[in-house]
Amino acid sequence: MGMMQAERKGEAAATPSLYASHVKVQPRAVSGPVRRAKWTVLFLLLGLYYAVPWLRWNRGPGVPDQAVLADMAHARLFLGPIEIWPQEVYYLVGLLILAAIGLFAATSLFGRVWCGFACPQTVWTDLFMWVERKVEGDRNARIKLDAGPRDAAWWRKKAAKHAAWLTIAMATGGAWIMYFNDAPTVTREMLTGEASLTVYGFFALFTGTTWLLAGGAREQVCTYMCPWPRIQGAMLDENSLVVSYREWRGERRGKPSDATAGDCVDCKACVHVCPTGIDIRDGQQLECIGCGLCIDACDDVMGRLGREKGLIAFETLSNLAASAAATKGMEPGPARRAAGMAARTAPRFLRVRTLIYAGALGAVAAVMLGAWVMRETLTISVLPDRAPLFVRLSDGGIRNAYTLKLANKLREGGTLTLEIRGPADLSLMVPEAPHDPQGRPLLHARPDAIASYRAFVSAPPTLHLPERVEVTFRLLDAEGRVQASATSAFLGPRP
Amino acid sequence: MPTKIEKDAISGQMTTGHEWDGLKELDTPMPRWWLWTFYATVVFALVWVVIYPAIPVSGLTGLSGWTARGALPAEMAAERARIEPMLARLREASPAEIAADPEMRAFALAGGRGAFNNACAGCHGAGGQGAPGFPSLADDDWLFGGKLDEIQHTIRHGVRAGESDDQRGIAMPAFLSTGMMTAAQVNDTAEYVLSLTGRATNAEAAGRGEALFSENCASCHGERGEGNRDMGAPRLNDRIWLFGGDKAAVVRTIAYSRAGVMPSWQGRLDPAVVNMLTLYVHSLGGGE
């Protein structure tokens, strides 16, 4: 009995827990060219995000003057000179497809540059970490603070940090709202308490998620939530530039004074600066977002030791293999370094994979450009009545009724002449429209709106038509040019 | 089924025991907060089940007592309040004013369609296509006139329903059953009526019927069967027949009379809805 219990206990101890507590990653500050590049991208992207809603674009009276605006209430998307109606959402789909292929192409060329530099999760986390560092100090100070007593200083620092985080988060949530509302108006309304519950709700949602994801969740978003790290293995190959530790040069790790050891002095600088808390020397791994901060950290150490930089670098897997093969069995030292570096070849950017991505990118862009150039600003759609399909008139003739919809995507209206093309002797009547001297209806295409008309087409009793004939409705401008047309059917009794 | 749980040589981590073609899966622990998130969703679901009617058993309504049906009146009232300014405009405006204002007209046509399907389509059919005894509203034949004001009057006061002093239509006598005509006279009159559209089967009978028609029918239907809108007497010289145009139907009409009835909608419907119906009905066949 006692033995069995002891055995079970032994088993339980051997089985690792199904769940692990989160260990907070405390990255150390680092400086260098990669860090500078990251700051540049961060300032650029955040600047764009916060500033774009304030850009104005004069579109004339009665039209929003915000350059980028998704006007939900009026169902219009404004992008500078471009104005898109809801039924043209395929332009947005095209943009998303372009973005996706662009992401594939960038990944296959340069690895996870999106994750490491441009992803909002990375950008905002970087900003939040900078705030944390300013308030609580660098890595060691923070570890000490978190391990120490919760005294007045602890509370003061935590409160200051979260206050700063919430300020940034509120600016983020507030800017998001501005893409859907007139920025100056909604800012004033939000400050005076006049904004709608929807506005406050979305503001709270985006403030909350910014604070939670950039402040609390951080690298766990990348490791556990984001599907992209799992997908992009399919885009990478041995010619992609990825953040790599040059194992052939660094091993065997040893003290700086040890002349027989490799270049890696096991200082763990690369681990301490990593925002996801991994060791790049373990090779390619899911958690690595490719930010390259370990490159700066390692180069700094190598510089101080007087060793050649680039122990960690953006490097292709094929070069790593070539260098490793060239230096196999060599003793650590300048000769091994030189041999390894000499074995490298320039990364091949033109590969079947990247050419296919470039081709797809070009094809989608061409289709979108073509669709935009050929975009019709005036369309007519003809909806024939379904009940009744046709009516017998008092003189014995047959009449069909249609609802015409004139969608005018321009900001100026116009008058157009309506005519039908079909069997001769069919007559057209639009009771609510005036007529030109030849008796043709004159329809008004209302600016930036859909105008609706009821049209009636009649066949005299003497005209014997098949059960169904085609009728084309055409809109002519003042010069008689066809501006839009649509074909429908004229129905009658079975002959 | 797990086959062999073992320690992975490279990572030092335990495997799940699953193996696919030599590939083994590491048993990486889940973050604990993820587990807590899962528990939170379970708690949320339990609270939801207690508060809202989540179990499809009659009587289990949830603590809050909320039901979709119970929420409907408030939603309807909110929608009603939203469109009330437009309804107020439609109430005050004449049909002609509504037709001239694109915004009011578009609202009236959309709202009129719904009101028509609710109140009118039962007899007049969807799209006003009509049925025997129920006039088509999509053609060019109007018993009481197809102008906006005339349509509005008919909707307001109804036809022969005895509900309004201004109602449309008078009754047609049943010539045979009241003894005003003999069966032979009814036949002759019917032949004459058919001859108005060139369809008489017996020219002699039609000739006899002309005098009968002039004496009994022309005061309402006109000397040449052109109809009379004041009385709601249909045209008899066109191709549209409300109760059927073959001889048997015409004989039956003369012998036993016919009269359509339509209720008065004034007082039953909001004046704004009457105006919306007016615009919609007028749009079906283009009106007059």
From TrEMBL, chain B:
Its main location: membrane. Pathway: Energy metabolism; oxidative phosphorylation. Its cofactor is heme c. It comes from the Bacteria. The keyword Transmembrane helix applies. Binds 2 heme C groups per subunit. Residues 107-197, 204-285 form the Cytochrome c domain. It is found in: Cell inner membrane. Keywords: Cell inner membrane, Cell membrane, Electron transport, Heme, Hydrogen ion transport, Ion transport, Iron, Membrane, Metal-binding, Oxidoreductase, Repeat, Respiratory chain, Transmembrane, Transmembrane helix, Transport. The chain crosses the membrane at residues 33-55. NCBIfam families: ccoP. Component of the cbb3-type cytochrome c oxidase. C-type cytochrome. Part of the cbb3-type cytochrome c oxidase complex. PANTHER family: CBB3-TYPE CYTOCHROME C OXIDASE SUBUNIT FIXP (PTHR33751:SF1). Belongs to the CcoP / FixP family. This is Cbb3-type cytochrome c oxidase subunit. The lineage of its organism: Bacteria, Pseudomonadati, Pseudomonadota, Alphaproteobacteria, Acetobacterales. The gene is ccoP.
